[in-house]
Amino acid sequence: MSQALVSKLEQRGPLSAEERGVIEAAVVRVRDVNADEDIVREGECPTESSLMLEGFSARYKILSNGRRQITALHVLGDFVDLHSFLLKKMDHGVVALTPCRIGVVPHDELRAITDRYPNLTRLLWLNTLIDGAIHREWLVAMGRRSALGHTAHLICELFLRLEAVGRTQGNSMNLPITQAELGDTLGISTVHVNRVVQELRSQGLITWRGEKLTIDNWDGLRAAAEFDPTYIHLGRQV
Amino acid sequence: MSQALVSKLEQRGPLSAEERGVIEAAVVRVRDVNADEDIVREGECPTESSLMLEGFSARYKILSNGRRQITALHVLGDFVDLHSFLLKKMDHGVVALTPCRIGVVPHDELRAITDRYPNLTRLLWLNTLIDGAIHREWLVAMGRRSALGHTAHLICELFLRLEAVGRTQGNSMNLPITQAELGDTLGISTVHVNRVVQELRSQGLITWRGEKLTIDNWDGLRAAAEFDPTYIHLGRQV
DNA sequence: CGAGGTCTTGAAGACGATCAACAAACGTGG
DNA sequence: CCACGTTTGTTGATCGTCTTCAAGACCTCG
User: Fold this and answer.
1) Which of residues 5-34 of A touch strand D (CB under 7 A)?
2) Region A9-37: what's the mean pLDDT?
3) Mutate to test the interface with B, among A135, A190, A192 (most CBs of B within 10 A)
4) How far lies B172's CA from each of B24, B169, B180, B213, in Å?
């Protein structure tokens, strides 16, 4: 049920059979959320954390003028709010961009794990640290890259993250998000997203039709993004 | 020696006398770093983490075109690279913006703590989660706020963080950073920083002369920033 | 087939970048 | 304590990226 999480943790460090069992048992039930519904609302104090088993979701914040900024995208195997275990009050919402299947992990389980399994605790902590590393890279992209470079960067990142959980086919991935959502992620207007995407297409870097995005020229895309995958920390860490 | 850290952790959750002793003992030595020198370099795999005891420092990344983006500012009591304990390889550098005094905490100590003191582990984890929360807020500010709002927001944040460690005097704080560094933090040009700061001054919101910044109109500044301090998670969490 | 969402295009305008020059402040050594 | 060089702050002019507004094309799904 939570294979994606187990394999994700194991990519970063070894798990004993016991630990593997503990993690699998931590998902006490599954919840389905419709597209465009909140998985967690801002201001809530969840008593459980949500693990992505299927679909795409986004952490976001809405300002008083109605503008939305997405601060993270989540796919299979990602915890959307592991931090709420310790941070208590949600300072942002999480919305399902597509229909999502969510594994529910009660905070009581997490507390028990952190009391008894130091190795597992470190791996869960590591998971939230990688979220932080991605946030930092996004900050760099927002602050100092062009809209085109930023967009290319995000595409590179999403591809590697999806590849790590076996959700790519060759150079293609399923990317079920709209250009408006992409704009809220990149911090630019929908219109400009459209122009940037067309530029990426006309440079022969990507094909994106419907939900299928294909990277036609990896080197070119990586160069446009100045992409260095170190920050995703895909190898063994512990 | 590491009182600031102890009191910072205790703001978020209770520590036993033993735990307090363990944390204090974790700082095995003190290191001084000159202004404009790196505390940690990108690409390194540190075997110890650095705790700020004095001064201001910044996490940053430099792109190939020479543009720099600062992704975090650190003050007294902040760990600049606690994440390197688990993330191993630094995906960014940390530079001293002023002369800094650094408390050195070996990763061996952290490992021992995480093996034996679950409560302390959770508080350290929480510390890195707050870093992440601040990153998210910065993403929102970069993506969706005007340069003026963004600047006002950062000033509000820094004031509260400095206040939490007793480094404010009334409505004033010591802010020893240049407008160029502020630009690298906000993701805007130095020239534009200057114009924004002058606008904040002319609106009667702040006074900033030399290193001393005074907030002359808190409500006005907060309104300009649309500042909501929830994300700094200053209260008790555990 | 119709309706709503999504994508695309054009035109005008705003915000912030860049370039260039100068003023002010600071630190250092004489 | 002053002179000097360097860093930091300030100002103006011009330019470019991205935004906003508006409208039309396309697609998907009931």
Assistant:
1) none
2) 95
3) A135
4) 30, 5, 21, 6
